[in-house]
Structures are given as C-alpha cells and as structure tokens.
Design a protein that fits this description.
heterodimer, A: about 375 residues, alpha+beta, Gyrase A, domain 2, 3 domains, 6-stranded mixed sheet, 6-stranded antiparallel β-barrel, globular, B: about 130 residues, OB fold (Dihydrolipoamide Acetyltransferase, E2P), 6-stranded antiparallel sheet, 4 helices, about 35% strand
Chain lengths: ~375, ~130
C-alpha cells in the first residue's frame, strides 16, 4: 500500500506495517491507530505492558547561559525549581492566556533544557519560543534527532530493566536518566500518558527499530502488546489527562482546564501571566469536568451538553472506558455546574441522553 | 468469508432475502474496519425504513458509523442480544450478529446489490 508523500513517517513506520497495524493520518503523521484491537491493547497496558511509538512527538532543546531565563518565561511552571534529571509538566501560553501547547520540560543541566511537545504543534511551539527569546539562549528544533518509545503498564519496569544497566527502580516519577538501553544511548524518563507506571525513552532514530523489537521481545513473557493511538486515547481519557485540541487549545486557559497546579503565579513574569492574574481575581466562567453516561449512548468530542434544559457546554473527549465498563467523557460547563453530582444531558444525534458529572481521574492505579 | 446466499451494499451492509423478509447486518469488512464495537443503535420494530437512508449506527471504541438500510420496508424484528453484547458483531457479523429483519416493500428486488464475488472485488479495490 502506497503512503501519500505528504504524510510524515516515524522511523518505526515499516515496523507498524510489518505488524499489520491499521494506519491513520494523525495530524499529518502516518501513525498506527491499532494492532490487535483497542480494547486488547488498552487491557495490556492496565494489566501488563504496552509499547507505543510516540516518535511523532517533537523535541525542542534550549541551551546557553540564559537558557533557564527563557524556559522560565515561556513555561507556566517553575523551571527555576528544576534540577538536572527532573521533569515538569507545563503550559506554553499565548500573551492572552490560552494554550499554545502543553509540554514536558526536562532539565538536562543547569544551562540545558529538553522539551517534549505535541507532534502537530512543534513548529508553532518552536516559533513561539524563538519569538520570546530575548536572552542568550539557543533554541533548537531537535525532533529529527530523536525517536521516542513509551513502555507503559505494571510490567514496564520489568520489561525495560532487562535491556539496561540503569537501575530503573531508582528513577522516580517525573525524573529521567541519560543512560543506555538495548546497547545505545537513551534518555530514560519515568513519564507517560496512560495513568500507569512506565517509561518514555528517547533514542537515536537509527536505533529505533532494533530497540522496538528488543522491547517487545523482552516484554513477551508478560504479554506485551504493541499499542496504537486508539488505546493511547482511551488510557489517557480514563486518567483524565488533557489532550491538546480537545481539553486545551488557544481559547482555553489553564485555570479553566483545571491545571492550576502547573501555573506558578508567584513568578514575576511569564507569557500569559497578566490575563491569568485577572482570571484569578475575577474567577473563570467555565471549567472542565468529568461525566459518565446514565442513559444509553456514547458521548463524543464536540457533542453539546445541556443543563436544566438549555445548552450549557460541550464535550471535549468522550467514549467507552474499557477499564471501568461505562461510557465517560470530559466537558466544559459553567463553573457552578462544573462540580461532581450534577445531572446533565448530552445531545447524541438529536436526542438528549442523561449523564452525571463525576470526579476525575476516572481511573487511578493502585500503588 | 462472504456467503454466496447474501447480497452486499457498497456501504458494507449485507442482506439475506427469504420471501419478503430481509435480514440485514454489516459485513466482516465493515467490522474489521471499525474495530472493537461497543454500542449499536437500532430502530424499534414497526419503524419504516427507506433504502439508502440511515437505519441506525454502530460505535467502535474510536468512532460512530451510520448503518444505511439496503432495502425499504418495515422493521419487524431487532436483534436484542446486541444491546448487551455488541462485540458479537466483531466475532460473527454474517451470522449471530444480524441487526434487523425488515418486511420488504414490494417489489422485493436486490438486483442492484453486489454478489459475494463482486463485493470482494469491490473491497479489494477500495483498499
């Protein structure tokens, strides 16, 4: 099957095709949506281990004597509190307080930061950070130099540990180590987008295929499965982790998205601070809240939400929860309605179907 | 894979006609394309359906797809088992997981639907 030339390929593209994955155009990338089936892959991650190609994600490196000043200015979180080996989740905001992207900031050294950003936002993020750069800092769009593989699930550590001398148990959540895996240099981060324990490793694209094969083989005894974007979405939705373009985008602020914890208002200045200060004082008018369906039907992204018989908001993500065996979703509602226990209706193909707001995350792993 | 006794639409429904009673389902190709099916929405018995118009919908984990009626007539029976076990559509789409039975409005003519061989050629070309 010929791939339209316009689509971007990860270094693992031929591997996905060899494994018989169903491929889709995901924001301009030719990506696997599923291999054995979304439910099967989802369950593998919750019960054992799943392997994801996330090489489409972008990487931006910021270095130089004033790298910290630039990162701290573009990030909503406190980059100044990072020490080498630590990672922060952060917002990258416009001046008006809406999201350019959500990012992971890795502190490689005091003068060197490594940002993992969303695939389809990488060029925009890079321009945004460069435009903000009035310091002696170098900004480099480094995506071509990294492949990224996520190993997620309760058996992720046992799987990856077979392939590295780095003591993985010593890497705490949201920490990383530069070491070796499968005989090549690897940045090994204890992060993920599934609500399970796991790792995301950044490697040389030339080594991606041999690493992928080795990881799948190492996980075989636990029932490791290659996993596509379909399972990645159901897993992150159960964990109520935001997805750019759905829960967050240019007209949504971190306070509306319930991401107050990644905004450090005590910082004197950062991009988007002024409108956030006004929002903090006046309060936001809408907020993100979780819900579950009570009537028969599945809420999907973009469906209208009704409260007291009137349109009140919209669904940002919705679908079946394979782990909880119910239909769940996230939606924006007026702030007074955006609390657990509110009866709402979702408009599904012209019919109003009962739902109720519930606390998030929908799924939390036992520790 | 595709039983000879069925006729197939280009929208990936199948029909089995016995007298004026048409049993309708979605094809193996359709279930394969959809992935894990988690929900089915079907009309109630007594509902009038029109050829080419929406009959209901099937939802996979990822997405919703409309089912188009391959015949015109009146729904006389709905496969109730699918409400609690929509995944049967993935495992037995041409058999146990039929969707509805329709009393076809005369003339009961499936002439414009595809034979098994033609349908297989059609989906091969679609890929």
């Amino acid at each position: 099957m010929a791939v339209p030339t316009a689509l971007k390929l990860t270094p693992l593209n031929s591997v996905h095709r060899r494994l018989g994955a169903r491929m889709v155009d995901f924001g301009g990338w030719d990506m696997p949506v599923q291999y054995s089936g979304i439910l099967d892959e989802h369950n593998a991650v919750r019960n054992a281990v799943g392997i994801f190609d996330v090489s489409h994600m972008g990487e931006i490196e910021i270095s130089g004597p004033e790298a910290l000043a630039l990162v701290d200015f573009v990030s909503t979180n406190s980059a100044a509190k990072l020490t080498p080996g630590k990672i922060q989740y952060a917002g990258l905001l416009y001046d008006h307080g809406g999201f350019v992207d959500d990012i992971l900031v890795h502190c490689v050294a005091e003068d060197r930061f490594f940002l993992c950003v969303n695939a389809s936002n990488q060029e925009k993020d890079y321009e945004h950070i460069r435009d903000a750069n009035r310091w002696r800092a170098e900004v480099d769009l480094a995506s071509q130099r990294y492949a990224q593989i996520a190993i997620q699930g309760p058996k992720a550590l046992a799987t990856l540990q077979k392939l590295t001398k780095t003591n993985l148990a010593a890497i705490r959540y949201y920490n990383f180590v530069d070491g070796e895996a499968v005989g090549v240099w690897a940045r090994i981060a204890r992060t993920g987008y599934t609500g399970e324990d796991g790792f995301e490793i950044y490697i040389d694209p030339a080594a991606a295929e041999s690493c992928w094969d080795a990881i799948l083989e190492a996980g075989a005894e636990f029932g490791a499965k290659p996993c596509g974007l379909g399972a990645r979405n159901t897993l992150r939705m159960e964990a109520a982790m935001p997805l750019y373009g759905h829960e967050i985008h240019a007209s949504i602020s971190p306070f509306e998205a319930g991401l107050d914890w990644i905004v450090k208002m005590e910082k004197e200045s950062f991009l988007g601070r002024a409108p956030l200060e006004r929002q903090r004082q006046a309060g936001v008018s809408r907020k993100l809240v979780g819900f579950e369906m009570r009537g028969r039907g599945i809420a999907r992204d973009g469906y209208e939400v009704f409260s007291d018989g009137a349109p009140a908001g919209w669904v940002t993500s919705g679908g079946p929860s394979p782990t909880l065996c119910k239909n769940i979703g996230l939606c924006y509602l007026p702030v007074q309605k955006a609390v657990a226990g509110q009866p709402i209706q979702i408009q599904i193909r012209g019919q109003l179907v009962d739902a109720v707001t519930i606390p998030t995350p929908f799924y939390k792993r036992a520790r | 894979m595709y039983p000879e006794k069925l006729r197939y639409s280009k929208e990936h429904e199948w029909v089995e006609l016995e007298g004026d009673l048409a049993t309708v389902g979605i094809t193996d190709h359709a279930q394969e394309e959809l992935g894990d099916i988690v929900y089915v929405e079907l009309p109630k018995p007594g509902a009038k359906v029109e050829k080419g118009k929406t009959l209901g919908s099937v939802e996979s984990v990822k997405a919703v797809s409309d089912i188009y009626s391959p015949v015109s007539g009146e729904v006389v029976e709905v496969n109730e088992k699918l409400a609690d076990a929509p995944e049967k559509i993935n495992t037995d789409p041409h058999g146990e997981a039929w969707l509805v039975k329709i009393r076809v409005a005369p003339p009961a003519d499936l002439g414009d639907l595809l034979t098994a061989a033609d349908y297989e050629t059609y989906i091969a070309a679609e890929k």
